[in-house]
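We give its fold:
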Amino acid sequence: MKKIVFCLLISLYFSVSFAFSQTNSISNELINDAKSGNSRSQALLAGLYLESSVTYKDGFEFAKQSADQGDAIGIYLLGQCYDKGLGTVSDYSKGELFYQKAVNLLKSEALSGDMVAQYYLGCCFEDGTGVELNYTEAAKWYRSSADQGDAKAQCSLGVLYNYGNGVEQSYCEALTWFRRAAEQGNSDALFNIGVFYEYGYGVEKSNTEAVKWYHLAAEQGHIKAQYNLGVCYENGDGVEKSNIEAAKWYKLAAEKGHADAQCNLGYFYENGYGVETSFSDAAKWYKMAAEQGHAEAQSNLGTLYRYGDGVEQSFTEAVKWYRLSAEQNNAIAQCNLGYCYDYGLGVEKSYADAVKWYALAANNGLAKAQYNLGSCYYYGKGADKSYTEAVKWFRNAAEQGYAIAQHNLGLCYYYGHGVEKSYAEALQWFALAAEQNYVESQFNLGVFYENGLGVAQSYTEAVKWYTLAAEHGSAKAQYVLGVLYDEGRGVEKSSTEAVRWWKLAAEQGNTPAQYNLGTCYYDGYGVQQSYTEAVKWLHLAAEHGDLAAQCLLGVCFGFGYGVEKSDIEAVKWYRLAAEQGYAQAQYNLGTCYSYGTGVEESETEAIKWYRLAAEQGYAQAQYNLGICYKNGLGVEKSYDEAAKWFQLAAEKNYANAQYELGLYYISSYLSGNILDKETGIMWLKKAAESKSSVSTSAVKALQMLEVPGY
């Protein structure tokens, strides 16, 4: 919401003081006199009408009637109408001619002591209309009129004292004249006294007093007072905060054309402050203000068009209003216009133009634009890639508390991009963003504490930050938190909690979590065992490219777990993972070729896949490859090659390989070789102690060798 900007710039008053101090019956008398042709009454009535935008035309007509009869004030007001386009087409030259004509007549009447003429002559000198601007002369004539009791002159003299124009600056003198005018009910004076109390000019600052005077002026229809009163109610300055009251006063001022009030009222309708939310009403008021050149309203209207809120969505219209606002140096509009160029919304995509507008907004101090500009430099979009420049702008935004910029600055320190690498600095910036609930930073803090990066390692702290990120919906954090519960690191081990977090992550499409959840259902770990549920989650993970899930899904098809048994489907999934280097799938596929399950039997293909898995250290594949060499299946028989692969598998405690290796050492496979009996006994003992399918055979072999204890 834009901040209120008070000013003491008083608009030119068209009516004389006594016209405001009389009762309605006298006002009716004034109307009757004007209609009967009295030139001065016509002039005074014109002044009254010209105070309201809805009666400019009537004001112009009465001013013209008065001027046609040679009335000095009527001529002056007609000049105003042409000068400012009030009730007629603006014509500055014509307005100046009437001003010049009015001045000579006003001087004559002013010199004869006419206080109304003196007031208007002061206006001429203050504004430089019809004469050369001269504040001293303006003060002289205002004073002459004010001393005779003209409220408008008193107020205008107060304004001169406020600014020190033509007189020595004095808030006290200004206030004195404002009070004299206020006593006659002059709304501008009432308003100005409110401003003085608001800012403590010549009086002790008091929002309560300010509101009191604003109320008095606002109740007379004073537009600025109505607007300021709205701001006071909105902010709770000198009065109990009330959006309903704020909206009421904004609307009164807005209906009279006050652009700031129209913009604020639009904001209230957009957000449902004090009124029922209505994007169409928001658009209506924003547009009224925007068409008066109000930069903030133009920017806000652009955003409504961008998202189609209250208006038909139109990126072209959005760009139009953003541009008008941006050209008035509105930082938000500049940033939004940059975004439109960045993504080609309503304009042809242009990273260079995006950078241009981001830079303008960034130099105006807008944090979001500084972040966007930093991103352009970081990735080299529309500007030469420069981590140093990126860091500069990320830092500017980060120091304003912009969370994503703090996060990105943390990443720059983490990777050493544009700054010296520092986990401690990265941690500091992640922490600032995390405290604003920036989820990625919360997750990163978890990583830092888990691994002791730039801080003492602490699973407890890691769990704290992972939990915050997980509760804010981070699938990554939910997955990792599941792992920590599964392993009991930083929390009490709990398969149920592990499953709970994995399920939340899996439902968001986190592939590792989908795989883990699938295995939990497969094994009945932390959840009731269900092959159907297992297949559901494994299938999702497999389709997302998870190799382990593809392999296990193959197993499910191979055995008919949760799906109709299909060796062909099993081979399909094994092959998909195997061709991407997943060792277990390569082994399974080798087994399928070995037995002709789902494929045509082929010892050559079996050996190929066993070897690929074995070379990755997969023990079962190493053992099977050893058997192939031992028996000459798909390869030339070789006991030494067989022993080599048995050895590798045996060292991984694969009992079958230990048994075969033991036999190799104690048997005479190669004529003339003296084998190491003790080594053979060692491997047979390991196999015997394994309680596997070969343990009995290993025990019998040891008994035959008469090994003690067997």
